[in-house]
Amino acid sequence: LDHPTAWTHDSRAILFSSDRQGSRQIFRQDLDQSSAQPVFQSSSSQSSQSAQQDAKDQALVTPDGSWILYWSAPPANGATLATKKLMRVAVSGGAPEQVMEATADTPVDFICPRGSGGTCILRRWQDNQMVFFSLDPMKGEGPQLARTRLMITQDDLDWDVAPGAIRIALSSASSLPGQIRIIDLRNGSESSVPLPDGWNVDNVNWSADGNALFLTAETKSENFEARLDLNGHARVLLDRGRDQTLGPIIPAPDGRHVAFYQHVFEANAWLLQNF
């Protein structure tokens, strides 16, 4: 399976994670090329946030456009993993370097805003609160930026950081039904954007200009991609019924392209006679 996760800053190439070589690795697909190339060769599993938190399942580009950040863990071989490492590798290529390390079961992940400006954000859980810290690709975890109280439900929780790292969007069908929570990192204030009736959001991503959200959502009869502005006005962009799964919309920094994956399910019934 191929999952696009980020664009390079010039919007000319897509980063995606794939298990096409056995373990999950990071690849780069230039828009003017016919085939993708691995960012680097490794026997470790790259890209997955953690065994418990793989919604984003991604490698991300830092706001200065210099580094790709990702989680790395050695092949499990049936054993329980003890640690995971947050790694950086230069967008231009080179050897990966460790940024920080965490136990494999620690509920911690990160997101980098698209485009220039701001900082990557590290998220931790503390006493039923989601706590956000700045994340420096060279120094690791930095000062606390904000926190919000939320029931811990990893399975349906998704979040994203707006361009410039000025806002965070949170979605959770169980903890935040019918709404998207917005946290302003400039002052710590919280607000909510209402969802249309019956919508359950699987993934949320900010648009390139930071004025709207791209949603991967579903109802009882449909899987679809949608755009939601901060006033609650929603528009379905792509509807695929229930026989296909759609992945998160990943907008390019230039605002002209988006990337997402689509899984198609087929089933056939056969009648056998005289066997």
Overall mean pLDDT stands at 87
Q: How many DSSP H or I helices?
A: 0
Largest sheet: 5 strands, antiparallel
Distance between the termini: 37 Å
Portion of residues in beta strands equals over 45%
Uncertain segments: 46-56
Helix content: under 10%
Structure summary, number of beta strands: 25
What is the alpha-carbon Rg in Å? 19 Å
Structural class: mainly beta
Compressed to H and E, one letter per element, the order equals: EEEEEEEEEEEEEEEEEEEEEEEEE
Net shape: globular
Describe the structure.
The structure is a single chain. The protein has 275 residues and is an all-beta fold. Helices cover 0% and strands 51% of the residues. The protein is built from no helices and 25 strands. The strands form 7 sheets. Strands 5, 6, 7, 8 and 9 form a 5-stranded antiparallel β-sheet that branches.
